[in-house]
Amino acid sequence: MPQFFANANYKFVQHRWRTVTISTVIILAGLVMMVVKGPNWSVDFRGGMDMTVRFSQTVSDGQVRAALGDVISGGEVKTIGGLGAQSDILIRMKTSDDPTATQRMIQDKLTAEFPGNKVEVREIALVGPRVGRELRNSAAISAVLAIILLLIYITWRFRFEFAIGGIIALVHNVFVTLAFVVFMDYELSLSVLAAFLTLIGYSINDTIVVFDRIRENMKKLKDMSLADVMDRSINETLSRSVITSVTVFLSTLVLYIFGGEVLRGFSFVMLVGVIASAYATVFVSAPVVVEWAEKAILKGKKK
Amino acid sequence: MKEHRVRIIVVTALIVLGGYLLYPTLRYEQLSRQETELLTQLSNVSGIPAQRLVSDIYRDDVDLVGEVQTSSLSEMDKLAATQQIEYLRGDFAKSLQSNRSLAIKRGLDLQGGMYLVLEVDLLELLQNSAKGKDDQYEALMRELTPIAKKPDADVFSELETVAGRMNITLNRYWGDAGQSDGDIVSDLRKTADDAVDRSLEILRNRVDQFGVSEPSISKLGTRRIALELPGVKDPVRARELVGRTALLEFQLMGETDRAQQVLLALDEGIRKHQSGDTSSIAPDTLTTDSLAADSTSDTTNTDITAADTTLGDTTGAANNPLLSLLVGGTGDILVPVENRGKVTRYLTAIENQRYIPRDLAFKWSARSEKIGTDQKEYWRLYVLKSRAELTGEKLADARSTMGSGYDPAQAGKPVVQIEFTREGGRVFSRVTGANVGKRLAIVLDDKVYMAPNLQEKISGGSAVITGLDDIEEARDIAIVLRAGALPASVNVAEERTVGPSLGQDSVDAGKLCLIISFLAVILFMVWYYRASGLIADLAMIFNVFLLMGALALFQFTLTMPGIAGIILTIGMAVDANVLIFERIREELRAGKSVRAAIDTGFDRALLTIIDSNTTTAIAGVVLLIYGTGAIKGFALTLTVGILINMFTSVFLTRLVYDVYTSGRQLKTLSV
User: Fold this and answer.
1) Is the pLDDT confidence value at B314 over 60?
2) Are A260 and B506 within 8 A, CB to CB?
3) Which end of chain A is more exposed for a tag (fewer CB within 10 A), N or C?
């Protein structure tokens, strides 16, 4: 019967500065790149129109761009998909005063310019500037609200120091993942945002399991130093952390490969997020609590 | 076994319930497949194209049986086709309908369709209700428009502030609505609410006639209307049908010489403006001497043979910035397609409004035409009287047909036949009688479809709209005219359209992911935990099964992100069991007996499971509350999945262990 980390006894807390440094470098690199390039908002948040069409015989994006000419002035045309599937053409307009007329013009123009090649509208996403802004606001509200609720819950179930450690781990995961999203130039869309919020829920779940063990061991091993209790707790839950990460990773990998273009960004975030989260659970959350809470907890013990 | 009886009954009951809830979904899938087969068969027998059958088979206003009876089929085929149609529309439709209403709903992203959020243009509504417009009013609107167009702006309170700042009392223009500014604003707000409700009803009428199955239309907040149109085949056409205001107006053409004066004044004004000369010229000081246009006659029906004379001086753009863009034929003002944008900009520029008298308005033709020997493409530009003689309000009916008779504009071409109400007919007959020899433009949504010369008084109470592209357009125009005009135009705030092929691709991808994900997790768990892994897999499958049952029970809509939520649930569902198994292994390593290890393992892990799942559920619920559309679907499956997971992983696996270990003294446990 396989068993990972049967008698694990690694000194995680001792090496916390190294691991935290790695994370910091990745996060900073991501942030710098995001500031330099500007966030790649999708149509959901930016507003505008994305129209995806498919031709029955493959046509290059250059041909479509040439055919559309100034109908799409200021817009862009690119080929998307093609991972095993047939590729589509994405026509992107930054803004559009009269979307109905624009859609009609694009469709008529493509039908006229590519005779005998059937054009099918695969998808249209059109978001007005007002809605784009509202979506951004509600996204921000939901992220902040989720974090506040989690802080309250963990403080209630554990201690405030733990809550801070958990939230730091969570923010760490979000930013590390965001860094990779920026590196890979994925768009920040509604579904990517949903993935980030899921990641918040998932990564805190991962951390809680370790905290739970620390809470238990602190009661059991009163004489041990906090750092040792933590090392021990992390080691004891190590195999669980790895196995759960593996199963979730398997599911998201399947989604990433077979889920199609619609879920590509979403599953990428989850994929990176699961790895980041496994890393943070072991190397970031508890060690940070040590730094933050050693004094506070010791003070508490003496009382 | 006795001590487990209650728990076994609970689990069995849940399995039965789940099966009962999911049966309609499976049955509906089966019936849908059967429907396609039956329709293909019917199409083969009757000769009616399958495409038409799909859209018309359940419609009450289409008489397919009659069509079959009058066709040239053999008697035997007629009988067979009639029987099939009757079966499809009878028993089959009934069972399809009843299963569909209980099946898991598929989101628009899976079945294909269109989701639209429309916003009533409140600024336009405001302008429509204003009376006695003057220069000060125009100034107010110029000030208000950019502010009101900003996101988050409340048009009415902005109106109050802007008017206050400019020292304008609102009752000058909206005196009907009340005396004080406060009264007027609150009354205008009420008008806006009514307008939204009325728009919703009108849109419902249009959508019902469009022929999609189960359209849904609802208010979103106070000012927006959300539409769901499943299975739309031509999204662009659907958009045009839903989005147009459908304001039909009959307007007289402005007198030719006045129109020319206005154009000249405009031209002069633009030239002065461009050369930096700020002194303005009042339109009436101009004479028509400088007009270099061809003689313009009042008829359009004469064929235009040469349309190459520029209206302005040949010296070009510098001297005649506007006129040089226009072309005078023997009839209307023609504008080469490439000049339309520039002309529109000149005509709508704020600084040029003073050259356009308030009682005249510029309007474009509905489409461009190829004219003359060189077949160059032109738009027509009309100068119309602003006041409409008659509007679509006084319409009794509108129908699309193929035109007949000798008129080349009608014969064999799609037209819309409109019938006026009695009052409308009287007005129409009066207007046409009083203006014989003049031209009357038929304008729909600010586009001129035709502007015929009135040759006699028309008293039949009906008229014909020509100049349409195809029968589909005629059909759509008839639909919107029947349903009535919207109180103000609507803007599309959001649109999500998924074509049927993408929807099917998503369903296929979702199924594939579900199967592979199942297999991957199941195999991994069995490899790592052996028999216990199998138990965890069983709990996980049970979890997904109950989750689907819950979707059917609460009539939730399954979307593509929702499927992602289910697949993620597969990966996360085993976590609780992993926690339990790891605990049991620890206890076994510590030397406890199998029975004791199981008990301690479950007890100790329970708290962790509750804590860790609650945190995920918190994030899920937040998403559920603040998420929109597809995200909601995802949050829903994720949250419900977590809740069910707590039950299955603790309750069900514990039961399996207990049944397995009761009455035996186990030395080892496969975990």
Assistant:
1) no
2) yes
3) C
More confident position, A98 or B419: B419
Phi, psi of B72 (to 5 degrees): -95, 20
From chain B, pick out residues whose CB is under 8 angstroms from the CB of A259. Answer: 509-510, 513, 564
Identify the DSSP state of B339.
Answer: G
Question: Over chain B, what is the mean pLDDT?
Answer: 85
Place A301 in a pLDDT band, splitting at 50, 70 and 90: low
Average pLDDT over residues B306-330: 65
The CB density around residue B476, as the number of other CB atoms within 10 Å, is 24
The pLDDT, as a whole number, for residue B331 is 66
Residues of B in contact with A212 (CB under 8 A): 607-608, 611-612
Determine the distance from the C-alpha atom of residue B356 to the mean position of all C-alpha atoms in its chain, rounded to a whole number: 36
Q: Is A139 on the interface with B (CB under 8 A)?
A: yes
Joined tokens for residue B1: 């076994």
The full set of domain ranges for chain A reads: 16-42+131-302, 48-127
Residue whose token pair is 């046409």: B432
| Residues in B touching A198 (Cβ below 8 Å) | 568, 619-620, 623, 634, 638
Query: Is residue A285 a contact partner of residue A154, using CB atoms and an 8 Å limit?
Result: no
Check whether domain A48-127 has CATH 3.10.20.310, yes or no: no
Q: Which ipTM score applies to this complex? A: 0.89
Position of tokens 């008529």? A108
Cα–Cα distance between B417 and B442 in angstroms, integer? 13
What distance lies between CA A235 and its chain's CA centroid? 27
Number of H helices, E strands in chain B: 22, 19
Coil, strand or helix: which one is B373?
A: coil
Domain ranges across chain B: 2-103, 113-216+491-498, 244-467, 501-661
3 state DSSP class of B61: coil
Tokens of A280: 């943070």
Taking CB atoms and an 8 Å limit, are B575 and A244 in contact across chains? Answer: yes
Is the per-residue pLDDT at B299 higher than 80?
no
Q: If we measure between CA atoms, which residue out of A124, A162, A34 comes closest to residue B109?
A: A124
Question: In 3-state terms, what secondary structure has residue B343?
Answer: helix
Query: Domain A16-42+131-302 is in which class?
Result: mainly alpha
Inter-chain CB proximity B499 and A123 less than 8 Å: yes
B300 SS3 class:
coil
Q: Are the C-beta atoms of A251 and B571 separated by less than 8 Å?
A: yes
What's the rounded Cα separation, in Å, for the pair A260 and B590? 47
Asked if residues B504 and B136 have their Cβ atoms less than 8 Å apart, the reply is no
Architecture of domain B501-661: Up-down Bundle (1.20)
pLDDT tens digits for B324-350?
Answer: 888 875 568 889 888 888 898 899 888
Strand partners, B557: B105
Where residue B186 falls (left for φ over 0; alpha for ψ -120 to 50; beta otherwise) is alpha
